[in-house]
Design brief:
The complex is a heterodimer of chains A (about 70) and B (about 290). Chain A has about 70 residues and is of the alpha+beta class. Helix content of chain A is about 15%, strand content about 15%. With about 290 residues, chain B is α/β, with parallel strands linked by helices. In chain B, strands 2-1-3-4-8-7-10-9 form an eight-stranded mixed sheet, sandwiched between helices. In chain B, strands 5-6 form a two-stranded antiparallel sheet.
Amino acid sequence: MIKINPNLCKGCDLCIESCPKQVYTKSKVSNTKGVYLPNPENEDECIKCHLCELMCPDQATYVEDEKND
Amino acid sequence: MDSEINSKENPSLKYLRKDRLPHIFCGGCGNGIILNSFFKGMESAEMDFDNIAMVSGIGCSSRIPGYVKCDSLHTTHGRSLAFATGLKTGNPDLDVVVFTGDGDAAAIGGNHLIHAARRNINLTVICINNNIYGMTGGQISPTSPKGSFGSTAPYGAQDAPFKLAELVTAAGASYVARWTTVNPVQLSNAIKKGLKTDGFSFIEVISQCPTYFGRKNKLRTPVDMIRYFKDSTVVKRKADKMTDEELLGKIIIGEFANNNRGEFTKGICNLSIEECGKPTYKKSAYKL
Protein backbone atom coordinates (compact mmCIF):
# COMPACT_ATOMS: atom_id res chain seq x y z
CA MET A 1 0.00 0.00 0.00
CA ILE A 2 1.34 3.45 -0.92
CA LYS A 3 0.33 6.54 0.99
CA ILE A 4 1.04 10.19 0.20
CA ASN A 5 0.67 12.66 3.04
CA PRO A 6 -1.16 15.65 1.50
CA ASN A 7 -0.04 17.96 4.33
CA LEU A 8 3.65 17.40 3.56
CA CYS A 9 3.79 16.93 -0.23
CA LYS A 10 4.93 19.99 -2.20
CA GLY A 11 4.37 18.46 -5.63
CA CYS A 12 7.98 18.29 -6.84
CA ASP A 13 7.34 15.13 -8.96
CA LEU A 14 10.62 13.49 -7.92
CA CYS A 15 8.79 10.27 -6.98
CA ILE A 16 7.17 10.14 -10.43
CA GLU A 17 10.59 10.59 -12.06
CA SER A 18 12.57 8.21 -9.86
CA CYS A 19 10.15 5.26 -9.74
CA PRO A 20 11.66 2.40 -11.81
CA LYS A 21 8.22 0.91 -12.52
CA GLN A 22 6.26 4.10 -13.31
CA VAL A 23 3.82 3.52 -10.45
CA TYR A 24 2.96 7.18 -9.97
CA THR A 25 1.10 9.55 -12.22
CA LYS A 26 0.49 13.23 -11.63
CA SER A 27 -3.06 14.05 -10.59
CA LYS A 28 -4.95 16.41 -12.90
CA VAL A 29 -6.68 18.36 -10.13
CA SER A 30 -4.84 20.35 -7.47
CA ASN A 31 -5.69 20.03 -3.79
CA THR A 32 -6.63 22.93 -1.49
CA LYS A 33 -2.96 23.94 -1.15
CA GLY A 34 -2.55 24.15 -4.93
CA VAL A 35 -0.36 21.04 -5.07
CA TYR A 36 -0.77 18.44 -7.83
CA LEU A 37 -0.26 15.34 -5.72
CA PRO A 38 1.29 12.17 -7.19
CA ASN A 39 -1.24 9.41 -7.61
CA PRO A 40 -0.06 5.77 -7.14
CA GLU A 41 -2.15 4.57 -10.06
CA ASN A 42 -0.25 1.43 -11.08
CA GLU A 43 0.20 0.19 -7.55
CA ASP A 44 0.22 -3.48 -8.62
CA GLU A 45 3.54 -2.84 -10.41
CA CYS A 46 5.27 -1.72 -7.18
CA ILE A 47 8.29 -3.87 -6.27
CA LYS A 48 8.71 -2.26 -2.80
CA CYS A 49 12.16 -0.87 -3.53
CA HIS A 50 11.40 2.13 -1.27
CA LEU A 51 13.29 4.46 -3.62
CA CYS A 52 10.39 6.95 -3.59
CA GLU A 53 10.60 7.10 0.21
CA LEU A 54 14.31 7.96 -0.05
CA MET A 55 13.84 10.42 -2.92
CA CYS A 56 10.94 12.30 -1.29
CA PRO A 57 12.43 15.59 0.00
CA ASP A 58 9.37 16.24 2.15
CA GLN A 59 9.03 12.81 3.81
CA ALA A 60 5.50 12.53 2.43
CA THR A 61 5.52 9.06 0.82
CA TYR A 62 5.09 5.80 2.65
CA VAL A 63 5.33 2.32 1.10
CA GLU A 64 4.05 -0.57 3.17
CA ASP A 65 5.81 -3.90 2.80
CA GLU A 66 3.63 -6.92 2.15
CA LYS A 67 2.82 -8.83 5.28
CA ASN A 68 4.21 -12.34 5.51
CA ASP A 69 1.14 -13.99 7.04
CA MET B 1 9.15 0.27 19.40
CA ASP B 2 6.35 -1.82 17.87
CA SER B 3 4.15 1.23 17.54
CA GLU B 4 6.92 2.98 15.59
CA ILE B 5 7.17 0.07 13.18
CA ASN B 6 3.43 -0.19 12.72
CA SER B 7 2.78 3.53 12.33
CA LYS B 8 2.06 4.24 8.69
CA GLU B 9 4.39 7.06 7.84
CA ASN B 10 7.69 7.72 6.11
CA PRO B 11 10.56 6.01 8.02
CA SER B 12 12.43 9.32 8.39
CA LEU B 13 9.57 11.02 10.20
CA LYS B 14 10.26 9.33 13.51
CA TYR B 15 13.53 11.27 13.81
CA LEU B 16 12.00 14.65 12.91
CA ARG B 17 10.23 17.31 14.92
CA LYS B 18 6.79 16.81 13.41
CA ASP B 19 5.39 20.07 14.78
CA ARG B 20 7.88 21.98 12.58
CA LEU B 21 6.89 20.19 9.37
CA PRO B 22 6.44 20.82 6.46
CA HIS B 23 9.93 22.26 6.41
CA ILE B 24 11.00 25.58 4.92
CA PHE B 25 12.83 24.15 1.86
CA CYS B 26 11.45 24.77 -1.61
CA GLY B 27 9.59 22.00 -3.42
CA GLY B 28 12.15 19.57 -4.87
CA CYS B 29 15.08 20.79 -2.75
CA GLY B 30 17.78 18.16 -2.27
CA ASN B 31 18.16 18.77 1.47
CA GLY B 32 15.26 16.45 2.30
CA ILE B 33 16.73 13.61 0.21
CA ILE B 34 20.05 13.98 2.03
CA LEU B 35 18.20 13.92 5.36
CA ASN B 36 16.49 10.64 4.38
CA SER B 37 19.83 9.17 3.25
CA PHE B 38 21.46 10.25 6.49
CA PHE B 39 18.85 8.42 8.58
CA LYS B 40 19.16 5.33 6.40
CA GLY B 41 22.95 5.41 6.77
CA MET B 42 22.65 6.00 10.49
CA GLU B 43 20.32 3.02 10.87
CA SER B 44 22.56 0.70 8.86
CA ALA B 45 25.63 1.86 10.84
CA GLU B 46 23.66 0.99 14.01
CA MET B 47 24.48 4.32 15.61
CA ASP B 48 22.82 5.47 18.82
CA PHE B 49 20.58 8.35 17.76
CA ASP B 50 20.66 9.87 21.27
CA ASN B 51 24.45 10.12 21.12
CA ILE B 52 24.49 12.18 17.92
CA ALA B 53 25.01 15.94 18.04
CA MET B 54 24.49 18.01 14.91
CA VAL B 55 26.32 21.25 14.20
CA SER B 56 25.53 23.64 11.38
CA GLY B 57 26.39 27.13 10.23
CA ILE B 58 24.34 29.48 8.07
CA GLY B 59 22.54 28.62 4.84
CA CYS B 60 19.62 26.60 3.53
CA SER B 61 21.34 23.28 4.27
CA SER B 62 22.32 24.45 7.73
CA ARG B 63 18.67 24.62 8.73
CA ILE B 64 18.49 20.79 8.66
CA PRO B 65 19.49 20.17 12.34
CA GLY B 66 16.59 22.37 13.44
CA TYR B 67 14.18 19.70 12.18
CA VAL B 68 15.92 16.70 13.79
CA LYS B 69 15.09 15.46 17.29
CA CYS B 70 18.65 15.52 18.60
CA ASP B 71 21.04 17.93 20.29
CA SER B 72 22.15 20.57 17.81
CA LEU B 73 24.16 23.74 17.52
CA HIS B 74 23.28 26.44 15.01
CA THR B 75 26.40 28.55 14.83
CA THR B 76 27.86 31.58 13.08
CA HIS B 77 28.54 31.64 9.36
CA GLY B 78 31.35 29.33 8.29
CA ARG B 79 32.39 28.48 11.84
CA SER B 80 30.44 25.23 12.22
CA LEU B 81 33.65 23.17 11.98
CA ALA B 82 35.37 25.33 14.62
CA PHE B 83 32.41 24.82 16.99
CA ALA B 84 32.31 21.10 16.18
CA THR B 85 36.05 20.76 16.88
CA GLY B 86 35.48 22.26 20.33
CA LEU B 87 32.47 20.04 20.97
CA LYS B 88 34.31 16.88 19.94
CA THR B 89 37.45 17.74 21.92
CA GLY B 90 35.36 18.54 24.99
CA ASN B 91 33.43 15.29 24.82
CA PRO B 92 35.10 12.73 22.51
CA ASP B 93 32.34 10.18 23.15
CA LEU B 94 29.79 12.21 21.17
CA ASP B 95 29.19 11.43 17.50
CA VAL B 96 29.38 14.89 15.98
CA VAL B 97 27.79 15.39 12.56
CA VAL B 98 28.24 18.67 10.71
CA PHE B 99 25.74 19.74 8.04
CA THR B 100 27.18 22.49 5.95
CA GLY B 101 26.60 24.13 2.63
CA ASP B 102 29.06 25.11 -0.06
CA GLY B 103 29.07 28.77 0.97
CA ASP B 104 29.61 27.75 4.56
CA ALA B 105 32.36 25.17 4.00
CA ALA B 106 34.15 26.41 0.89
CA ALA B 107 33.79 30.20 0.96
CA ILE B 108 33.79 31.73 4.43
CA GLY B 109 34.84 28.59 6.29
CA GLY B 110 37.38 27.30 3.78
CA ASN B 111 40.29 27.58 6.16
CA HIS B 112 38.42 25.79 8.94
CA LEU B 113 37.65 22.97 6.51
CA ILE B 114 41.21 22.28 5.40
CA HIS B 115 42.60 22.56 8.93
CA ALA B 116 39.95 20.23 10.38
CA ALA B 117 40.94 17.75 7.67
CA ARG B 118 44.64 18.28 8.39
CA ARG B 119 44.12 17.58 12.11
CA ASN B 120 41.97 14.57 11.20
CA ILE B 121 39.49 15.12 14.01
CA ASN B 122 36.72 12.51 14.20
CA LEU B 123 33.80 14.43 12.64
CA THR B 124 31.35 13.46 9.92
CA VAL B 125 30.92 16.42 7.62
CA ILE B 126 28.09 16.34 5.08
CA CYS B 127 28.64 19.18 2.65
CA ILE B 128 25.53 19.92 0.61
CA ASN B 129 26.84 21.55 -2.53
CA ASN B 130 24.11 23.18 -4.59
CA ASN B 131 26.56 25.28 -6.66
CA ILE B 132 24.93 28.59 -5.71
CA TYR B 133 24.05 30.76 -2.70
CA GLY B 134 20.40 29.71 -2.49
CA MET B 135 19.35 31.53 0.66
CA THR B 136 20.44 35.02 -0.32
CA GLY B 137 19.19 35.15 -3.89
CA GLY B 138 21.30 33.09 -6.27
CA GLN B 139 24.78 34.59 -6.13
CA ILE B 140 27.71 32.65 -7.60
CA SER B 141 29.53 30.50 -5.04
CA PRO B 142 33.12 29.14 -5.12
CA THR B 143 31.79 25.81 -6.41
CA SER B 144 29.65 27.13 -9.29
CA PRO B 145 30.70 25.42 -12.51
CA LYS B 146 32.48 27.60 -15.07
CA GLY B 147 29.96 29.18 -17.38
CA SER B 148 26.95 28.76 -15.10
CA PHE B 149 24.69 31.75 -14.57
CA GLY B 150 23.72 33.42 -11.34
CA SER B 151 22.40 36.77 -10.21
CA THR B 152 25.97 38.07 -9.84
CA ALA B 153 27.14 36.43 -13.08
CA PRO B 154 24.79 37.52 -15.91
CA TYR B 155 27.45 36.51 -18.50
CA GLY B 156 28.34 33.22 -16.79
CA ALA B 157 30.86 32.43 -14.06
CA GLN B 158 34.41 33.11 -15.28
CA ASP B 159 36.42 31.32 -12.58
CA ALA B 160 37.24 27.65 -12.21
CA PRO B 161 35.26 26.04 -9.38
CA PHE B 162 36.63 24.54 -6.19
CA LYS B 163 36.80 20.74 -6.24
CA LEU B 164 35.91 20.17 -2.60
CA ALA B 165 36.37 16.40 -2.40
CA GLU B 166 39.83 16.59 -4.02
CA LEU B 167 40.76 19.53 -1.77
CA VAL B 168 39.86 17.69 1.43
CA THR B 169 41.60 14.51 0.20
CA ALA B 170 44.76 16.53 -0.34
CA ALA B 171 44.40 18.08 3.12
CA GLY B 172 44.55 14.59 4.63
CA ALA B 173 41.04 13.48 5.59
CA SER B 174 40.40 9.82 6.45
CA TYR B 175 37.27 9.29 4.37
CA VAL B 176 36.16 11.40 1.41
CA ALA B 177 33.32 10.67 -1.01
CA ARG B 178 31.22 12.61 -3.48
CA TRP B 179 27.71 11.61 -4.56
CA THR B 180 24.70 13.41 -5.93
CA THR B 181 21.07 13.41 -4.82
CA VAL B 182 20.20 10.93 -7.59
CA ASN B 183 22.32 8.26 -5.85
CA PRO B 184 20.57 8.15 -2.44
CA VAL B 185 21.48 4.50 -1.77
CA GLN B 186 25.19 5.01 -2.49
CA LEU B 187 25.03 8.22 -0.47
CA SER B 188 23.60 6.42 2.56
CA ASN B 189 26.36 3.80 2.28
CA ALA B 190 28.95 6.60 2.19
CA ILE B 191 27.35 8.20 5.27
CA LYS B 192 27.45 4.82 7.01
CA LYS B 193 31.17 4.48 6.24
CA GLY B 194 31.78 8.09 7.27
CA LEU B 195 30.07 7.61 10.63
CA LYS B 196 32.11 4.48 11.29
CA THR B 197 35.45 5.96 10.19
CA ASP B 198 37.70 7.00 13.05
CA GLY B 199 38.88 10.31 11.64
CA PHE B 200 37.70 13.22 9.53
CA SER B 201 35.09 12.01 7.05
CA PHE B 202 33.83 14.37 4.39
CA ILE B 203 30.88 13.53 2.18
CA GLU B 204 30.17 16.05 -0.55
CA VAL B 205 26.66 15.82 -1.99
CA ILE B 206 25.87 17.63 -5.23
CA SER B 207 22.32 18.83 -4.66
CA GLN B 208 19.72 20.56 -6.76
CA CYS B 209 18.51 24.11 -6.23
CA PRO B 210 15.67 24.41 -8.75
CA THR B 211 14.63 27.81 -7.40
CA TYR B 212 17.88 29.67 -8.10
CA PHE B 213 20.46 27.48 -9.88
CA GLY B 214 17.78 25.83 -11.99
CA ARG B 215 15.96 29.00 -12.92
CA LYS B 216 19.14 30.78 -14.02
CA ASN B 217 20.49 27.77 -15.94
CA LYS B 218 17.43 26.52 -17.88
CA LEU B 219 16.79 23.62 -15.48
CA ARG B 220 13.66 25.09 -13.99
CA THR B 221 12.07 22.02 -12.40
CA PRO B 222 13.56 19.52 -9.92
CA VAL B 223 13.01 16.77 -12.51
CA ASP B 224 15.14 18.66 -15.07
CA MET B 225 17.88 19.05 -12.48
CA ILE B 226 18.05 15.37 -11.53
CA ARG B 227 18.05 14.40 -15.23
CA TYR B 228 21.01 16.78 -15.66
CA PHE B 229 22.80 15.04 -12.77
CA LYS B 230 22.11 11.62 -14.26
CA ASP B 231 23.55 12.72 -17.62
CA SER B 232 26.65 14.48 -16.30
CA THR B 233 27.95 12.16 -13.59
CA VAL B 234 30.99 9.93 -14.15
CA VAL B 235 32.14 7.29 -11.67
CA LYS B 236 35.66 7.94 -10.38
CA ARG B 237 37.07 4.63 -11.64
CA LYS B 238 36.00 5.55 -15.17
CA ALA B 239 37.03 9.18 -14.79
CA ASP B 240 40.62 8.20 -13.93
CA LYS B 241 40.99 6.88 -17.50
CA MET B 242 39.48 9.96 -19.16
CA THR B 243 41.29 13.10 -20.31
CA ASP B 244 40.64 16.58 -18.89
CA GLU B 245 38.79 17.64 -22.05
CA GLU B 246 36.43 14.70 -21.82
CA LEU B 247 35.76 15.50 -18.17
CA LEU B 248 34.80 19.12 -18.90
CA GLY B 249 31.39 19.81 -17.33
CA LYS B 250 31.19 16.37 -15.73
CA ILE B 251 30.64 15.58 -12.07
CA ILE B 252 33.01 12.88 -10.76
CA ILE B 253 31.30 10.71 -8.16
CA GLY B 254 32.69 7.97 -5.95
CA GLU B 255 35.03 7.38 -3.06
CA PHE B 256 38.14 9.59 -3.01
CA ALA B 257 39.94 8.51 0.16
CA ASN B 258 39.52 5.72 2.68
CA ASN B 259 42.55 5.42 4.93
CA ASN B 260 43.14 5.49 8.64
CA ARG B 261 45.71 7.69 10.29
CA GLY B 262 46.13 9.20 13.75
CA GLU B 263 43.03 10.86 15.15
CA PHE B 264 43.12 14.24 16.91
CA THR B 265 41.15 13.69 20.14
CA LYS B 266 42.82 10.33 20.82
CA GLY B 267 46.24 11.99 20.41
CA ILE B 268 45.32 14.71 22.91
CA CYS B 269 43.93 12.15 25.36
CA ASN B 270 47.05 9.97 25.14
CA LEU B 271 49.31 13.00 25.60
CA SER B 272 47.36 14.05 28.69
CA ILE B 273 47.53 10.56 30.18
CA GLU B 274 51.27 10.40 29.55
CA GLU B 275 51.98 13.82 31.05
CA CYS B 276 49.36 14.15 33.82
CA GLY B 277 48.03 10.64 34.36
CA LYS B 278 44.40 11.37 33.50
CA PRO B 279 42.40 12.29 30.38
CA THR B 280 41.82 15.97 29.68
CA TYR B 281 38.09 15.90 29.38
CA LYS B 282 35.36 15.30 31.92
CA LYS B 283 31.75 14.79 30.99
CA SER B 284 30.20 16.71 33.87
CA ALA B 285 30.85 20.24 35.06
CA TYR B 286 30.14 19.17 38.66
CA LYS B 287 32.38 16.11 38.98
CA LEU B 288 36.10 16.57 39.38
